[in-house]
Specification:
CATH class: Alpha Beta
Radius of gyration: 20 Å
Structural class: alpha/beta
Distance between the termini: 9 Å
CATH architecture: Alpha-Beta Barrel
Strand content: 15-25%
Shape: globular
Largest sheet: 8 strands, parallel
């Protein structure tokens, strides 16, 4: 077993893309194959800024009179108001393409200047449609809004892939809400969402995630970040083991006929035991060119990561790279450089 580099899931603590590219390159550049822009600006709180896109869409109105604020964003759900037929709902720009194109210009300039290593790709992290639909749409309207919102997200992807050379680009889809639905369907207490609007929970969420994954053109790298949430640096529910992570990963591999360049799986800080990693022996490892395990935690540093690396290696999953469980942009800024350095030390030690 060998450690094969490191992966940044998405968010860092920098306030702008240039700072992200510089700090990641300085502290971890030799171990990274791609760098995200840090999810700066309105994307700081992942999908919460998408409420503005729903508010600007004719035919949708908020439910409730008083704002429901989360991190300063109004997360009251939207319902169909009858002013537009559901099949004529039309979202305008969601903001992802605009942000990506602006950040890519900075990335390309810094790579040309030698700040970013030659051959490094620009990573764009996108949520699956299920995240915004669950957060911002009333349960009774989700099935009607799903098609128009999915089309809008794919239009963002089209703009990104049309403007950025394929050889420079890597697209990551973030699957988090999917695990809330899956765990809840298996009888676990998950305080998120009210259940799906389709019958077979696992098949439905896999079909939806694979649909957007297949839209990534050939030549552009495709990756998936599987996630159990990161609110206050805590999961919405702790995975019992890696079983559902493997179920989703294998389901994606079965539904997507192009190369999946990388797969990222979270590892809770408490889990350095063989039981957590045992399901990884069933992972269709050959379908993922790179595997990254989110087993690096700032709380227990080198010793904790080494224990989790040893257990993961003993599972027989083969070579893998290192990551945190999720992005770390909502932590304190002074943590970023030491956490990147921790990745580098661990990656260099094997």
């Amino acid at each position: 077993m060998a450690i094969q580099g490191a992966h940044l899931v998405g968010s860092l603590t920098c306030t702008d893309a240039e700072s992200t590219f510089r700090v990641a390159s300085q502290h971890l550049g030799g171990h990274l194959r791609r760098i995200p822009d840090g999810e700066v600006g309105p994307r700081f709180h992942w999908i919460l800024f998408q409420g503005a896109a729903f508010a600007a869409t004719a035919g949708l109105s908020r439910v409730g009179d008083e704002p429901a604020l989360l991190a300063g964003f109004d997360v009251r759900p939207f319902a169909l108001d009858g002013s537009v037929e559901p099949d004529r709902l039309a979202f305008s720009d969601l903001g992802y393409a605009d942000a990506a194109l602006e950040s890519y210009a900075t990335f390309a300039r810094l790579r040309e200047a030698g700040v970013v290593r030659a051959g490094t790709r620009f990573q764009v992290s996108l949520p699956t449609p299920l995240a915004a639909l669950t957060t911002f749409v009333h349960p009774e309207a989700r099935s009607a809004v799903e098609g128009p919102y999915t089309a809008a997200l794919l239009a963002e992807l089209d703009r990104i892939t049309a403007a950025i050379p394929a050889a420079d680009l890597a697209i990551q889809f973030d699957l988090a809400v999917e695990f809330a639905y899956l765990e809840k369907s298996q009888g676990r207490a998950v305080a998120y969402g009210r259940g799906p609007w389709w019958d077979d929970v696992a098949a439905g969420l896999l079909d939806r995630a694979a649909h957007v994954g297949r839209a990534v053109p050939a030549g552009v790298e495709l990756g998936f970040h599987l996630c159990y949430g990161d609110v206050g640096e805590r999961h919405f529910v702790e995975p019992l083991d890696a079983t559902n992570l493997v179920l989703v990963a294998n389901g994606l591999a079965e539904r997507i006929d192009r190369e999946i360049t990388w797969l990222h799986l979270p590892v809770p800080i408490e889990r350095d035991d063989a039981a957590f990693f045992a399901p990884l022996r069933d992972l269709h490892r050959h379908r993922f060119a790179e595997l990254y395990l989110g087993l690096v935690h700032h709380e227990d540093g080198t010793d904790g990561a080494r224990a989790r690396i040893a257990s993961a290696g003993a599972s027989g999953v083969g070579d893998f790279g290192l990551a945190t469980e999720c992005g770390f942009g909502r932590g304190p800024a002074e943590r970023t450089a030491p956490l990147l350095d921790l990745h580098a030390r661990l990656a260099a030690a094997w």
